Amino acid sequence: MKQEERRQQTTRLLLDTVKELIREKGCHAMTMKDIMDRSGLSKGAIFHYVKSKDEIFVWVLQERLEETNTQFMNEVELGRRSFEEPMRKIAESILQYENAQDVTNKVLLYLLGKEDQPVIAEALQQYYERSMELSRQWIVTGQRYGVIPASVDPDKTADMFVLLTLGLRVRSSIPLTAASFKGHDFTSMISDMLQSRK
Amino acid sequence: MKQEERRQQTTRLLLDTVKELIREKGCHAMTMKDIMDRSGLSKGAIFHYVKSKDEIFVWVLQERLEETNTQFMNEVELGRRSFEEPMRKIAESILQYENAQDVTNKVLLYLLGKEDQPVIAEALQQYYERSMELSRQWIVTGQRYGVIPASVDPDKTADMFVLLTLGLRVRSSIPLTAASFKGHDFTSMISDMLQSRK
DNA sequence: TATTTACAAACCAACGGTCGGTTTTTATAA
DNA sequence: TTATAAAAACCGACCGTTGGTTTGTAAATA
């Protein structure tokens, strides 16, 4: 089973290199040459693992999706005590306050600009559906433990929540001066949304 | 003044051709060759008017921004009777229910994927600021005419509204099956948001 | 008449992607 | 165990397209 090991090792190297480069240069600026030089792999090797450059970004998004899944699940469990805490965590991870090494925003925006490609369309669809599902579960759990009013409609609210997070991702990609930034606290926004709903 | 006339004529031709092609093929698939063939202009001529291909997209967005500006202002005036009507109009224009010839979503998503370029960053910033300003004015006007509760915070609500519209734009770019689409009526969403706020 | 503008088209570098070939690993059977 | 066929991992020269440049020319303007 040495071949399988090598395969995993190489794909790991590839993904890590790519994420590094995205962080440094951005999705568009990163070239195949960059990946070759940084990883030490040849062009042929890379294209042996991946069908196109764009598919690499799909990989990155999907891997991040897995991570988010487990992370979110943990937060949801936290949600039995308070619904604000998971919200804050999630908002922070989106806004990259602390972990600026997360490339989800960049990759997501990049892929959205190429949604006409079938592979990308599928990945985006997966991403959206997963986001909706996670949000719904978070609300339902909160309701079960009594921290979110039972009157709240999970579907409707999850929809709104996902729209807001997508909006957040977009806005965080727009370079704004301190003067032009009129954003407000995301957590309190969600709090209002959940509690005011009769 | 014949030169000025020719200039305007050519730029008009360029912009219209580009918008047509974006509608047909998407931003990424559209090539310079396409623009040349369709418009009849040579490569040299096009690059005489525009510094780069990306700058064309900035043009398109800015032109659309002007249109939106006047359109929104009209809707705001309508808002003295009801705040739902302008909302519905705006949501429809975003979701492209009727006017599928609008390329704003595509262009916006394309530009967001390249926000590291200074020219694009500036355009995006303008777009965001304008959106915020328009939303704020809409709320303030609604309050003046008594159709929006005075208790609503214009800044905070405008922020949320813009985030939602950005989210809408993103979601409308994700190809979803009827089964996976769990979206709800945008207008009623905004209604809830505005009226429930104490 | 001099200069700037509008346009043309040959040219270029860089990019993503392909292809034929080599080496290494795995599977098969004598 | 060993011989061998097959497949996977990997390499790097090569290719077509693409966005962009440059050089040149004709028309408009000053």
TrEMBL record, chains A, B:
It comes from Paenibacillus cookii. Pfam families: TetR_N. This is TetR family transcriptional regulator. Residues 31-50 bind DNA. Residues 8-68 form the HTH tetR-type domain. The keyword Zinc-finger does not apply. Keywords: DNA-binding, Transcription, Transcription regulation.
